[in-house]
């Protein structure tokens, strides 16, 4: 059994340095992968990101670059901060009163934690799919058209109809495109006006993905999107995620290491206490992890 | 372990003799209680004779028979002749219940029959203690049946022998309270019948845990049935008395008129019709109060109530829902919201006469300097407001946060989210609050009396709809009818009753029935809209 002890350094009174049995510190390991090189530009780059919930220090000095048009998996045990990190990327943490974020996150080189950031625009570019399916209690069509309607991209209101600016045809196209994008069109094309709550759990989750696609995002964040679903629905979501990566940048949090290994291009491992311990190509992380703790976690000895 | 005597059979087959006897016993006891209730509500007179014996005495015979049967059931169970699973004791609840009954009977016997005078507590305590002992000390089956059986037998004998008979009366406080025999007998039948049924239910379950289960079921279902029965009695009382005055003079028919005209009061016009006419005349709800009327009606009061309630809704609902949205969605948990919450609850429990007084002192002098519909609408609106806020807040907080998160993650702003997702999801709850509130304000008398009441029996209804007038100067829209006093159904009812004229009782009952119908139709609208809003949310 490995002993994963944590020692605190007196330098800045923050438990940022973790020692593993192999004697390597997090800093040393980071030296290995902080240079993690990928082709193409970085979509997100976080630097020294810290998050507190009240007095609870949930994320410690996260520094990570996430490449464009690929699937990045965030794995780790419960409470390791992977969901917190995900919510930093579209500033959904702002909705939690006790949360405090320090550090920097850049989206396409632009800082999202600065004065004057338009959260509406940010969240239009960075969509999110939640852990349990949460379609609105509206029709399938209304669910998908909700975002574009609210942003004024599509107008089907009474006034628009009277003035002749009715976008109903465009809405039809959009609904079909998004449902096809979420691999749901075949199943629901004949009942677009039915309430979305009548769909099965897996269908609801794909509807939520379609709803996120409708506002034309660049990034889709997924917070354990398959954890509430059965194996068949899960495999559909996984196929979908791989397809989505051709057009979108996908960041997915998962408990399920097999899932991460199956669908992701690169994997970041968070371990207890809110530390990012290792980050690299998924194949490399699962076959040849640099850190003993990560190897223990992946082989199921710990975590 | 199998030798353990208290171990019961795992599988029980067939109906035990005990079960059958207990069901018959409980049915007889409940029948006695039901007949007692019917007699109490004057469905029949206890003095009537059936088969040569007055009904009062038949009650006595029934109770005595029930008592004997219950004692028999208990005795056969104690003797082990039937299969039962009694506890060691009948339990403290039954003990307390029967010792209280014993206290009452002992006290009455000591003071009224034996003439103990001021020493009556001695008799009360002795009988109470005996009842307690009889219930708690013997084994469960005997403890449950002995006191109730003896009580039923004793009461039955007392009633059957005519000691307590319709002619009998008892005045514990001479001159102010008298209990006549024709009320005492049905009351005894109800109380004793329920006690016997309670214990028969225990016998049905074999006196043990199962027995307590069965008796608890009997008690709670009897509470529910009693509640329902009370409602039915209340409503049917009003319907029976109000139906005849309400429907007096109703005429209707289909006519082919090739040139017929009739007067339509609300628009003061004669309408000419050439064709089929469905003619319908319902004087009680279509007439006002006038000398030449065939039947004097209450149309002005109906219209007054409808306007008062509608005005209160128009005033209170947007304000209340808006306040609830602010408190729930914008203001987080803070001292301020707590203060608002406490004061909202306080406002809701404020007596209506206080609202009325405020309206009388504050609104009436400022709105046309006289009693007016407008003042009434505002005061009723003040009363409706806290309930709308309370129920809307509850409905809004019960909307899942997942909806808000999903909307925010799509980049939709807070107000748009509230408008398009949160409020529609909360609408069924909000509507429920409004329905409850209408039930309260439509029947309010006190505030109307103080701020809106005019003549209780006017000849014409307030013409609110046709009195709107536009003007070039502020306030641009005026409505004289809103500034006039009005009658309203509860106010008219109050006026009829306090007038003390007995021949008008029909008018009062008819008004009450119409008030009930008006409130019910507001309910129907509310419930229909709640169903509509819920349908939109459901799959």
From TrEMBL, chain A:
The keyword Membrane appears for this protein: yes
One GO BP annotation of this record: phosphate ion transmembrane transport
Single GO molecular function: phosphate transmembrane transporter activity
Signal peptide, first to last residue: none
Region (Disordered) residue spans: 1-25
Keywords, alphabetical: ATP-binding, Cell membrane, Membrane, Nucleotide-binding, Transport
InterPro entries noted in UniProt: AAA+_ATPase, ABC_transporter-like_ATP-bd, ABC_transporter-like_CS, P-loop_NTPase, PstB-like
Domain of life: Archaea
Domain ABC transporter, chain residue ranges per copy: 44-298
Composition bias, Low complexity: 15-24
Keyword Iron included in the entry's annotation: no
GO terms under cellular component: membrane
Name by which UniProt lists this protein: Phosphate transport ATP-binding protein PstB
Provenance organism: Halarchaeum acidiphilum MH1-52-1
TrEMBL record, chain B:
Classification via InterPro entries: MetI-like (IPR000515), MetI-like_sf (IPR035906), Phosphate_PstA (IPR005672)
Transmembrane intervals: 20-46, 58-81, 93-112, 118-137, 149-171, 183-204, 216-240, 301-327, 347-364, 371-390, 507-533
Membrane-topology descriptor: Multi-pass membrane protein
Gene Ontology CC terms, in alphabetical order: plasma membrane
Gene3D superfamilies to which the protein is assigned, alphabetical: MetI-like
Chief place of localization: membrane
Pfam families according to UniProt: BPD_transp_1 (PF00528)
Localization terms from the record: Cell membrane
Keyword annotations: Cell membrane, Membrane, Transmembrane, Transmembrane helix, Transport
CDD domains cross-referenced by the UniProt entry: TM_PBP2
GO function terms (MF aspect): phosphate transmembrane transporter activity
GO biological process assignments: phosphate ion transmembrane transport
Residue intervals of the ABC transmembrane type-1 domain: 302-526
Family statement drawn from the similarity comment of this UniProt entry: Belongs to the binding-protein-dependent transport system permease family. CysTW subfamily.
Name of the protein described by the UniProt record: Phosphate transport system permease protein PstA
